[in-house]
Amino acid sequence: METTILSLAHGFAVAFQPDNLWYAFLGCLVGTLVGVLPGIGPLSGISILLPVTFGLNATQAVIMLAGIYYGSQYGGSTTSILMRIPGEASSVMTCIDGNAMAKRGRAGAALCIAAVGSWVAGTFGVIMLTIVAPPLATIALKFGPPEYTALLVLGLIFLAYMSSSSLIRTLLMACIGLLCGMIGIDNMTGHFRYAFDLPELGDGIGIVPVAVGLFGLGEILSTPSHKVGGEVISPKMRELLPNRQEWRESAWPIARGTVLGFIIGIIPGSAHIISSFLSYALERRLSKHPEQFGKGAVAGVAGPESANNSASTGAFVPMLALGIPTGPITAVLIGALMVHGVNAGPQLVTEHPDVFWGFVASMYVGNLMLLALNLPLVSVFVTVLRIPYAYLYPLIIMFCIVGVYEVSHSIVDVWIMLIMGLLGYALRKFQFDPAPLVLGLVIAPLLEQSLRQSLIMSNGNYTIFFQRPISLGLLVVCVILLGLSAMTFVLKQKDWRTKLAEAEAGEETT
Amino acid sequence: MTLRADHVAGAFFILFGIVVHALSGDLPTGQLSMPGSGFLPKIVATLTMLLGLALVLRARESERFAEVPWADGKHALMVTAIAAAAIYLYTITGFLITLMVMIFALLVIVERRNPLYAGGYSVAIVLVTYACFSYLLKTPLPGLTLGQ
């Protein structure tokens, strides 16, 4: 524990360097804008701005990109409360009661509760990250190729199980991602795979063109400007503070949402989205006045907002400690670190303590910055919301093109982005979630290498995965999850995931 | 039989798996003790085909293919065409000209905005971005290479 405190103090020394403070602030500000603007999610925001970080060092880059991620969770609540349009998917539940509060003249109070809840949750998440990640990394050092193979397979199956779309659809997307990740030169044999004689494909398909295409361009293609709009409720500064009753009603939901969000955040899947849905359901079930939900219940804002922020911090635990992305956003962040020559994983704490502890400490600072940013600047964000989408999306397309091109000055990458944009558009039409595709793309090289190394180690004996206790344990969890999914399928029962998908669809159509 | 969305999607993934298998023809699969470069791609391609087949078999639960909403198709097509033209020209006519024209085209052709406002907006926004990249971020953007 003493070592952790000393390391954290070193992290604060890194985080308080003026440059790092500036990039944390910039990340938080851009993240809030990304969250506020409908049509740009945190993933597309991070992907588009990834090339901008190439001129920075690894610590500054990850501080800024993470600021965008957790900043977007804060910002998403503004659009939800003031316009009843979720700025990003995890704010869907905040729309219901947040906007109802706004219509009752309590917009300021709803924004304040969302911001304070997000701050409490974010700070709790970082404290837990500080405590949990280093020992987890020490355990992960004992992992060999079979353990990594089992862990990556478990990650994919967990993602498929947690997904609110079907298991088959999620696994299909993951398979396409894995196949995309195998394009290029095979590291172990030197064979050129699926490169169609294009030298640019020798290094494989980059995560940036794929993520920007699927989430940035794909979203724009499926969102004509006439679909984006609506009335913006403008809160007054003097109405920002909630009354005593509202504080009392929000305290426990914030506490519950915080703990629930962090636990779900560690598990692979779209944790920040799932956690807000589960928190809303939990608060409604525990409430003495469930009939108030949907009509402006304070707990309906406090719980989900805390949960999604805590989950976004929780997702950093497996990313930093194991080097395993639990979702597409952490996958892009791992990609960003790799661009700077830093591998996320168990060795990150020992080999790059500046990056690890500087990043953790910057999150404490970033959460404070967000609290200070979100409330006083709410009127500025309301002004941003009034920019017509028709003028906004050409700008985003420009950033997509420039951003992707600047990664490696390759026009082939920009064409890949366009193709991925069309693919993302088509996938949305057929109800596929493209997120597992990005995850598959990122883990493909690691999965292939660890699987082949395991088989070489055992001289072709595939029971190596069952002979080692950690990999056996992980594979047993895989079987249990697949069994649970199969049971739901065979018995045609509605489990929590189906109900979640229905709730999500129902909210989107209102 | 009614054609459903998942029939089409499933068939696409089966076809995709077949194409990957065909393209993997010259990649060595190797043995379990020494897997080759075609080992995992072939496994994943087979899995894709099986999952695609499962999607086709469960297609009754999906919506009818005719009911898949394509109302935004025209918007998507126009945006794609303009973006594709911009990408093609990007390294030829450079950042400034290409992206000014792209933003202007998107605003006037797709969004039917006033050409005067659209022109002013596209020039201003592209110049500001150029200045940001060139002077603040110190990132060179492609210039005009026409005729070089």
Task: Explain how this protein is built.
The complex is a heterodimer of chains A (510) and B (148). By secondary structure, chain A is mainly alpha-helical. In chain A, 74% of the residues lie in helices and 1% in strands. Chain A is built from 22 helices and two strands. In chain A, a hairpin with a 6-residue loop joins β1 and β2 (192-193). In chain A, α9 (244-266) runs parallel beside α11. The longest helix of chain A is centred in the N-terminal third of the chain and has 49 residues, at 92-140. Chain B folds into two domains: 5-67, no CATH class; 73-136, no CATH class. Chain B has a two-stranded antiparallel sheet. Chain B starts with a helix and ends in a 12-residue tail after the last helix. The chains are: A mainly alpha (510), B mainly alpha (148).
Question: Can you give me a brief rundown of this structure?
Answer:
Chain A is built from 22 helices and two strands. Chain A is mostly helical. Chain B folds into two domains: 5-67, no CATH class; 73-136, no CATH class.
Structural class label of chain B: mainly alpha
Q: What count of domains describes the coordinates of chain B?
A: 2
Strand residues, percent of chain B:
under 5%
What distance lies between the first and last C-alpha atoms of chain B, to the nearest angstrom? 59 Å
Low-confidence stretches of chain A: none
List unreliable stretches of 5+ residues of chain B: none
Q: How big is the Rg of chain A? A: 22 Å
Regarding quaternary structure, what we see is: heterodimer
Shape of chain A: globular
Order of helices and strands of chain B: HEEHHH
Instruction: Report the count of strand segments of chain A.
Output: 2
N→C terminal distance of chain A: 50 Å
